[in-house]
Write the structure tokens for this entry.
Amino acid sequence: MKTKRFLIFDLDDTLLDFKKGEHEGLTKIFRNHSPSHLAFDHWLTTFKQVNSEIWRQIESGGSAKALLDTRFSMTYQQFDVQTDGKQLEQEYRRYLDDNYYMIGGARELLEHLKEEGFSIIAGTNGKASTQRNRLKGTGLESLFDDVVISDEIGYAKPSKLFFDTLFKRNKEITAENALMIGDSLRSDIQGAANAGITSLWFNPHKLDNNTQIKPDFEAYTLKEISSLILSGELD
Ligand SMILES: [Mg+2]
């Protein structure tokens, strides 16, 4: 048996394809609310700028709900179009709730690891109803031994408190037998470091790591993740 037998998987853009659903949702918002002269690419670039500024404010302690309710109205304001930001945000959330796209090979990876006797835990930030609905819709739900969602426990990655709660719920897990796998350096890899557990950075776009955060291992594909775990190289 491998030492790392408790595998904590991030969901968005590690197993579930958040970006694809996000793009589809934004396309629908644009289609439903834009005047005909507006170009999608220009609007999307503006939205991304507004959105990253909003998230910067949220990460510095601003109210997520209040700020997110303004991201679409602020985007449209740049084009002199008046919209109801709250209403658009609600519409967009519905599209995100119905995002059942998976990263190719995700199901096979989990099924294989489960067959090999590993415990598989989802450790995700985000809204509980959205994440649970998506796990049901993709059919991945039954492959997890536990699903830990920031919204439900009151702490988000990278906080050590997120991992403390996850550990409390799974009695046999320890810092030595756990592995955190995720695409985000800031939440998954930093979170693993805060909790004192080994980390595996899923980096499918081969991004440069310009941060001070150092993952213990790195993989470009889900297949590589599988090989690393099964080979015992992580022990
Ligand atoms: Mg992620």
Notes: The longest strand covers residues 119-124. The mean pLDDT is 95. The chain is about 50% helix and 10% strand. The radius of gyration is 19 Å.
